[in-house]
Amino acid sequence: MAISSSPDSLPSVQELLEPSPGEILRKRMFGDWGLMIGGGVLLFIIVMAVIAPVLTWHDPLDQDLYNKYVPPIWHEKGTWDHPFGTDKFGRDYYARILFGARVSLMIGFTVMAISGVIGTAMGVAAGYFGGRVDMFVTYLINTRLAMPVILIALAVIALIGSSLEVVILVLGFLLWERFALVMRSSTQQVRNLDYVAAAEAAGCTTMRILMTEIMPNIMNNLIVVATLEVAHAVLLEAALSFLGLGVQPPDPSWGLMIAEGKTDMYFKPWVIAIPGIGLFAMLLAINLLGDGIRDVTAPENRN
Question: Which are the contacts of 66, defined by CB distance < 8 A and separation ≥ 6?
Fold first, then answer.
């Protein structure tokens, strides 16, 4: 039996030539230099940190007092056995930079995850339900904003002791307010839109509305805040380590390496320049990546 199709059911030439949504997104991503540079640099740092044991032949904790302050390879007395030189204990700086990136990345992403869950839950609840819930969450946000993060972190860590786990938990429970503020405002903007009202009229549960109608439409803002908080957490960890209350020696940390080298910075500048450049490159890459994701995914910035 022959199957006939009407001309109206066939796609037009214009529809066939129009790019798919995936092609549009891919073109937009590769056209954003900030996204490409930031993502490339951050991916490079992550890969170097993950395969650090393969890339170095030195243990970052091994000391060799006979080889203290060996200059990096670009100095006349540098050697390829220690491409980035050594510190005051003779520890290989190249190995400590690689393994220190692991510490910074783990702290940044773990703190972001903890604070993101807390702040997003509070912000979405306040923006959707309003009323007393909004008043209570706003009170908590104002209370948190009244307390300086670095001072509270210093006090808590000095009181209960410093370790990697303590630093992660303290920062995770202190950096949620930006998530809460942005998610509350974003949820209020979409709360009364037509598709949310239609879902409510159709009898959808509150959880389904939040997960299928609210969250997908505020995800862009959440991603931007998450990238900013990763950089914020890395910077705070470096500051705490610099002050002696972050990651404790002999574990490698870029902030701790800067603190240990500050007394010799005028005579052996590489001891703070190398970890400082690494910290700067990581923070810049994270911020460029966040800005690029915002530009690519925001509806008002789409071509």
Answer: 90
Domain boundaries, the chain: 45-301
**pLDDT score recorded for residue 14:** 52
Q: Determine the average pLDDT of the residues in 225-245.
A: 86
Which residue is it, tokens 């170095």? 56
Inter-residue contact 90 to 271 (CB < 8 Å) = no
Pure H helices in the chain: 13-17, 21-30, 33-50, 52-55, 93-129, 131-145, 149-160, 164-172, 177-191, 194-201, 206-209, 215-242, 254-261, 270-297
Alpha-carbon distance 296 to 28, whole Å?
6
pLDDT at 123: 93
In CATH terms, the fold of domain 45-301 is: MetI-like fold (1.10.3720)
Residue scoring higher pLDDT (298 or 197): 197
C-alpha distances in angstroms, 168 versus 164, 174, 254, 263? 6, 10, 16, 28
